[in-house]
Amino acid sequence: MPLCYIFTNLKDSEISPDLEENLEECISKLMNKPKERITVMLNTGIRMRFGGKKQFGMVCNIHSIAVFDEKRNPGYFPQLFDVLTSATKLPASSITIELTDLPAHMALNGAALS
Fold first, then answer.
1. 3-class DSSP assignment, residue 33
2. Number of Cβ within a 10 Å radius of residue 108
3. In what order do the strands lie in the sheet with 39-43?
4. pLDDT band, residue 65 (cuts 50/70/90)
């Protein structure tokens, strides 16, 4: 059940309206997860500093069970950056992606996930 949290100081109108759908598709393919279990949340217009100064930027946190490790992570980044840069016109240098491996302590529809 990947959870994707996106935080940016861009306005909602400055981001492609299909970002969530495109990111969901990307995560599904890259991590072999069903789209029905992926949640993407977009938080726009927040106050933030990026890279030590006030500038436009984005942080994308993706949390999931048993798909992140040192061997696989480098393969995820190019396609994730492609989706995010295409939807925002931000350069990759203004985007941070954090991948967090979760223990199986999540539930959906009243049942624990593994």
1. coil
2. 11
3. 39-43, 3-8, 58-65, 95-102
4. confident
